[in-house]
Each structure stands twice: as structure tokens, then as C-alpha cells.
Design a protein that fits this description.
The protein is α/β, with parallel strands linked by helices. It has 4 helices and 5 strands. Helices cover 43% and strands 32% of the residues. The radius of gyration is 13 Å and the shape is globular.
């Protein structure tokens, strides 16, 4: 599992995930994913276009990070899930917890709306 981050602007961090977000993948990125969002108080977009499989442990990693952000009045959005990952997110009702969009522009709009 690979993780890369880019600041889009002062209040928006984009994290790109690549690989399988299964037990091994979640363990591989958990600490660095948490460190990236800890203490920054910025909104986060997680780009899932490079994730070809997501297990429940991977979902737990993302949900825990989103909850951590909400404690600092920041939000998370997910964007660009591959069809199989998108279906898992839909079945799990993730959209009720955070925006899930088909593209980066939609995620930016979801997080920058007043």
C-alpha cells in the first residue's frame, strides 16, 4: 500500500492511496495516515482511484481518521473510488458519514461549501 500527500491549498490536504486496503495495507499506512492528519485541522480528501480492494479494516482506518478530523472541526471526503470499492462504500453507508464523490472537483466542492 502506498500513500502520498499534497496540500491543495492552506485548508485542504489530498491523500492518494494506492494498492489493497486490506489487513496488510491498512497496517502499512495506519501510522503515517494518522500522522498526516493529526494536529493540522485541515480538511482532507482521500483519493481512492488507486485502491483496487477495500476490506473492513481499511474502512475502519478511514472512518477513525474522519472522526479524528471532526474533533478538530475539519472534514474528510473520499473521491474517485474504483467500481468495486465504490460499491463497498455504498453498501456500508459511508456517504452518510462523509462525502463520496466521483471526481476531485466534487470532493473539493463538498468540503469548501459553507
Amino acid at each position: 500500500m502506498q500513500l502520498e500527500s499534497t496540500m491543495i491549498n492552506d485548508g485542504l490536504l489530498k491523500i492518494d492511496l494506492k494498492g489493497r486496503l486490506d489487513i496488510a495495507g491498512a497496517q502499512e499506512i495506519d501510522a503515517s495516515f494518522t500522522d498526516l492528519i493529526r494536529g493540522k485541522g485541515v480538511n482532507v480528501i482521500v483519493d481512492l482511484s488507486g485502491v483496487d480492494f477495500m476490506a473492513s479494516i481499511g474502512m475502519r482506518t478511514i472512518i477513525a481518521a474522519a472522526k479524528s478530523l471532526s474533533l478538530r472541526n475539519a472534514r474528510m471526503a473520499l473521491c474517485c473510488p474504483q467500481p468495486m470499492v465504490g460499491e463497498v462504500l455504498q453498501r456500508m453507508g459511508i456517504a452518510s458519514l462523509m462525502p463520496v464523490t466521483d471526481d476531485l472537483d466534487g470532493a473539493i466542492a463538498a468540503l469548501t461549501q459553507a
